[in-house]
């Protein structure tokens, strides 16, 4: 899994996650989506790896996604 692929996925999911309307619901939406993403891409990244990849590749998307789910990092998921 590349940082670009993860960022593309998050970029595409962000409108759906934001549309949920609650942080808990958004977190659930994202968690299920990420499970499917990693299943299809053959490698599961832990939250720390996701933080590292997204900080470098798409910090804006990372920030917006984390804000939507009410967390400071993906390591908290």
Topology readout:
Blueprint: H1 3-19, H2 23-41, H3 47-57, H4 59-69
Helix pairs in contact: 1-2, 1-3, 1-4, 3-4
What does this structure look like?
The radius of gyration is 11 Å and the shape is globular. The protein is built from four helices and no strands. Helices cover 75% and strands 0% of the residues. With 77 residues, the protein is mainly alpha-helical. Helix 1 (3-19) runs antiparallel to helix 2 (23-41) and helix 1 packs across helix 3 (47-57). The chain has one domain. The model has no long low-confidence stretch (mean pLDDT 93).
Give the overall pLDDT as a whole number.
93
User: Can you tell me the number of structural domains?
Assistant: 1
Strand content: under 5%
Low-confidence segments, given as residue ranges, are none
Helix segment tally: 4
* Sheet having the most strands: none
Query: Span between N and C termini?
Result: 19 Å
Which word captures the global form?
globular
- How many whole angstroms does the radius of gyration measure? 11 Å
Helix- and strand-based class? mainly alpha
Helix and strand run: HHHH
């Amino acid at each position: 899994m590349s940082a670009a692929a993860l960022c593309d996925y998050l970029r595409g999911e962000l409108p759906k996650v934001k549309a949920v309307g609650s942080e808990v619901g958004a977190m659930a939406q994202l968690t299920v989506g990420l499970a499917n993403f990693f299943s299809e891409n053959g490698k599961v990244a832990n939250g720390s790896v996701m933080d590292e990849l997204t900080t470098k590749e798409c910090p804006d998307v990372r920030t917006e996604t984390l804000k939507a789910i009410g967390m400071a990092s993906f390591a908290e998921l």
